[in-house]
Amino acid sequence: MKKEPVILITNDDGIMAPGLAVLVEIMKDFGKVIVVAPDSPQSAQGHALTISAPLRLNKVERFEGIESYECSGTPVDCVKIAKSVILKGRKADLCVSGINHGSNAALNVIYSGTVSAAMEASLEEINSIGFSLCDFSMQADFEPFRPYIREIVTHVLDKGMGNTRLLNVNFPRIPSEDIKGLRICRQANAKWVEEFVEGKDPHGGTYYWLSGEFVNFDKGTDTDIWALDNGYISIVPVHHDLTNYQAMDSLQDLVITEVEL
Amino acid sequence: MKKEPVILITNDDGIMAPGLAVLVEIMKDFGKVIVVAPDSPQSAQGHALTISAPLRLNKVERFEGIESYECSGTPVDCVKIAKSVILKGRKADLCVSGINHGSNAALNVIYSGTVSAAMEASLEEINSIGFSLCDFSMQADFEPFRPYIREIVTHVLDKGMGNTRLLNVNFPRIPSEDIKGLRICRQANAKWVEEFVEGKDPHGGTYYWLSGEFVNFDKGTDTDIWALDNGYISIVPVHHDLTNYQAMDSLQDLVITEVEL
């Protein structure tokens, strides 16, 4: 008999986020689910981790029949502590993160706690998926995307994920009948163009609060943003090697000392 | 007359870190320096940014004759607020981050506040450099590396940085006479293999504190870790496109709906 897969679930919106509850409900049909999520919202925490302070980990009754924990750290901390303290080195078969309330397409990926958590698991050679819906509302409607999550997870558990360990999946904010399907994409060159709103606090102190608008600088039809804008669910295979290989030759004149290997 | 370059300096060890002071002292010979650094240590903050809370920004007298600010946010917040609030959209000619107390080579790059701050500037098409010394001590000796920082900065200001916008520079912890020179490298597959130390706080509560050891899984002689272990200063050109292009074809069978373009 095939062993039941161990599935680690986390997110960055915190243990109480509706998107997490939907994901847990879907995933419990696929194996033994363990939830380790931040005890408070941790959006835009990127790959932050906690080294100069201790972490707290509490077992909680959040999802019926599901082993669940809240952790005082970042999404990446949650994955690390799940591995070491909860699974005690036993490797999960899959890590899913989300469903995030808000897009993690394009350059959002580098700020995303959701995808960073999944990336942390992928560094441990665990197949990992970040799921996000392009709707920041806490009342976002995740229903149309359940069958697609099932499809993707079934595929990954049965056949793996090709030459990658991490998928960044984003759902467009559209009704079921308008979804055209899945599309493998590259990360678009699109990002938040920001400014700070200046204000005065009740004590007269000046504060600055980040604001902005999302701008697509990328005309490609092979990007995640194009896919989402055209009714597709975008899937970007993600890796963690940030080396800009194409630039290596162009930098050789920066090397002062010639090296004999 | 050539216009004096505007140089933005930040770090993740905070406004009081000795490494920042060394970098400011070096950089003031190259142009108009503006310092915006976190008001407290922000190591391992990765690309975290602050969206659900306001930021504070205070002008401080920290370096003689240098316009300096401390910011309550992350390193990435510092770069964003420098751009919008201090430079008011005027583009810096160079952003340097560091000198970090501790290595940002190999996979450390994805957790690094130092490199993430420089990456944030690179997203604005500003040439950016993260400098780190492989010595976590606050008493680390940065002296041997001053001439190399001068060389790199001179080169970048005069000739640019080839096809990239971001360099991750790491210095080995060795005496001057043992430094063999600079080396253009790829990011090694090397990382912290971690565990949590469990303890009891004074009130009897259980805490978990991250610990671990750095392990190199990469036998290549073209990596930053090899360079550092063999007496070189490592320079990795870094980019922010996390797409795993090589995996895209291998995922096509995941696409349920065939798409006619």
CATH class of chain A: Alpha Beta
Helicity range of chain A: 10-25%
Mean pLDDT of chain A: 94
Neighbour order of strands in the largest sheet of chain A: 3-4-2-1-5-6-7-11-8
Total DSSP helices of chain A: 5
C-alpha end-to-end distance of chain A: 53 Å
CATH architecture of chain A: 3-Layer(aba) Sandwich
Seen as an oligomer or otherwise, the chain set is homodimer
The major sheet of chain A is characterized as:
9 strands, mixed
* Low-pLDDT regions of chain A: 257-261
H-E order of chain A: EHEEEHEHEHEEEEHE
What does this structure look like?
- Two copies of one chain form a homodimer.
- Chain A is α/β, with parallel strands linked by helices.
- The first copy, chain A, has one domain (6-190, 219-254): 3-Layer(aba) Sandwich (Stationary-phase Survival Protein Sure Homolog, Chain: A).
- The first copy, chain A, is 20% helix and 28% strand.
- Chain A has five helices and eleven strands; from the N terminus they run E-H-E-E-E-H-E-H-E-H-E-E-E-E-H-E.
- Chain A has a nine-stranded mixed beta sheet, with helices on both faces. In chain A, strands 9-10 form a two-stranded antiparallel sheet.
- In chain A, helix 3 (113-123) links the parallel strand 5 (94-101) and strand 6 (128-133).
- The longest helix of chain A has 14 residues, at 146-159.
- The first copy, chain A, is globular.
- Residues 257-261 of chain A have low confidence and may be disordered.
